[in-house]
Amino acid sequence: MVRVPTYNSYMNMISQTMDLKSKLDLYSYQTMSGLKAPNYSGYGMQAHTIVSLEAMLGVTENFIDSNDIVEVELNAMSTAMDSLQSTIQDFKSALINASGMDLSKTSPDETGGQITFGNDTVADYIGTTLTINGTTYTFSNTAGDGLIDISGATDGAGVAAAVKATVSGGSEFTINDNTLSFPLYTVDGPSTVLNVADVTTGEPYTMSEDQYNSIKSLQTQAFSAMKMLVDVLNTNVNGKYLFGGGDSNEAPINFPFSSLEEFQAYYDGVNITYPDNTAANQCNRVLTGEDTGALTLAQTGGNTGSITAANAGAFVQEAVNANDKTTGTLTFDADKNTINATQYGAFSTISAGDTLVINGDGAGNNGGKVYVVESVSADGKTITVSDTTPIAEDLTVSPDNTNPDATVTFGTSFPVGTVINMEGFNNSNIAPQVQVTGVSADGSTLFVTADPSRFPNMTIDVTKDWSLEANSYYVGGNLSSEKIISDNQSLTFDINGNDPAFDKMFRALGMIAQGNIVDTGNMLDGDTVDIDRTLDRVEEAMDLIQSSIYSSGVGSTENNADIYTVLAKLNSNTVVLNSVQENHTSVKNNLENSIYNVKNVDQTKAAVMALMAANNLNASYACMQQVMNVSLLNYL
To answer: How many Å apart are CA 430 and CA 422, to the nearest integer?
Structure first.
């Protein structure tokens, strides 16, 4: 039997049938998945478009995910700053209330504003002293500078009249018989006349209970605010310290005090006061016995002393070796108390508050001296020194290291006000901390204050156990970081715990929280009473707090000078990030829609096409079956 269909016709029918089956498979896939094809090859020329769109979508989604983390960090920082601002504003209000008190009456006046001179002991007054308004006068039989001439006095009234006539400001005094009356706190230093028989004073003024409670409450609030500041600056999100300046693995603020009493035991307000300048507050400098050699401790009177190192210049580290490349020409200006260099950044390693030691023959009379740095210009070309350490002479010099007569070096030591921990000495009588008041020009001796009962005259041999260490409250880094939030935009994170806004807060709060805010000295014992201590500290703290909240452009060269600037920067970053996120979300939606439109089909239409393909395939199978059954015999 010979069939009518040929091989070619058979293969043709098979091919058409398989095409119909492929269409049925494709329409079935489209019906179930909604996609045009199971792989990119099924999209033909549109495959490249799909790949490009999906790549863009992936980048956009990555930005959205990473920006979500940035948003969390920004929100955490903003929330922390809002809380801090509220706390500091509350403390500022408390300071304002405190300044409204009569702070001139918070320190006891041991003389009560009166001295009564006995009539029968005038001769006994010769050689005794009376300290008024900070000036000590001596009773004498002759007139002269610093002398109260009582040679003509025959009774106490005459002595009182001599005091009134001699003492500067005595016009404010009044005399009633032999009693001299004067404004409170005028007698403010050692006055041996008060110990003479028949010399009496008025009733001592004592602080009222309300005053005591107000000052104590202010100190408690200051310490609580310090703890709040520490918590804020140690904010940790996603295992990262946000105010750590790039050093995000360690808490940036080192504040080891858990109670006000513990804080005041360290900063007693007499021997050790809280640092009043940035350089001292943030000094990190460590010297060991290897650096200094043996140390000689010596008391120099009261609570002052000195620490002398066996190694020459041990307390000074070279900061700038002046030459034509590092500084260029130097100009010393005695009128303005400035040192100017011609090279930008010449003094960038020197900071306000630093103790500056200038040496070298090229510096003339300005060399071999110690200066306190008042400020350093933003371009690093000009140093202004404190009026307390004035420039000695006008001078212009071109430093030259090859010429011994033209060498100039600038060294720095522990800044004035730095608290140094004296650790590891095998002697419990040595004070655990001292505070720097200066350094010798040769860098071998530090001048300090310390508890006099714990600062013996002695020499300490070199061992590996002890060190002199100044610890800053800030132990974080100083680097800023940049967050890439889109292809063309980034955010800079440069708010660190050592920024001026926070440093000023620490100093203001520490100034109030420290001990002895009220001077309780006894003038009858020869103590000098600082009657303005409370007022001075409150006013200085007020200035610092106000500057930390809003500096009004003062110190505009400082980065993050106040909380206003910090919050503005955070808010600006938040606005930019939100705008970018909204844009990314819009782009993501557009990309997803574009990809959907290219890759997807109408599933209802695909189902209809699948049914039609199934019917066609069935018809094809039936036709092919019929044709395959036809033979020549049947055909004929």
So the answer is: 8
Can you tell me the distance from the alpha carbon of 445 to that of 438, in angstroms, rounded to the nearest whole number? 9
Among candidate residues 278, 200, 155, the one with its CA nearest the CA of residue 544:
278
Tell me the two tokens of residue 87: 């706390």
- Residue 1: pLDDT above 60? no
- Per DSSP, what are the bridge partners of residue 631? 3
Is 560 in contact with 571 (CB distance < 8 Å)? no
Residue 307's alpha-carbon distances to 140, 280, 636, in angstroms, are: 40, 18, 132
Residue 167 near residue 189 (C-beta atoms within 8 A): no
> What's the rounded Cα separation, in Å, for the pair 375 and 370?
15
| Three-state secondary structure call for residue 452 | helix
Query: Which position has the higher pLDDT, 183 or 549?
Result: 549
- Tokens standing for residue 262: 């513990």
Instruction: Determine the Cα–Cα distance for residues 538 and 329; give it in Å rounded to an integer.
Output: 43
**Would you list the DSSP string of 311-333?**
STTTT-EEEEE-STTTT-SEEEE
Q: Distance between CA atoms of 26 and 17, rounded to whole angstroms?
A: 14
Write down the residue that tokens 């009220």 correspond to.
518
**Spatial separation of the C-alpha atoms in residues 319 and 411, rounded to whole Å:** 5
Residue 201: per-residue pLDDT: 87
Kindly indicate the confidence band of residue 225, based on its pLDDT and cuts at 50, 70 and 90: very high
d(CA 558, CA 499): 8
Distance CA 271, CA 277 (A): 17
pLDDT of res. 632: 61
Phi, psi of 437 (to 5 degrees): -115, -10
Residues 6+ apart with CB under 8 A from 62: none
Give the global pTM.
0.80
Mean pLDDT for 368-372 is 92
Contact 411, 357 (CB under 8 A): yes
Nearest to residue 358, comparing CAs of 329, 324, 385?
Answer: 385
Q: What backbone phi and psi angles, to 5 degrees, belong to 105?
A: -115, 25
Least confident residue range of 91-105, 365-379, 466-480? 91-105
User: What residue spans of 203-329 are helical by DSSP H?
Assistant: 209-233, 260-266, 278-281, 289-292
What's the pLDDT score for residue 619?
Answer: 76
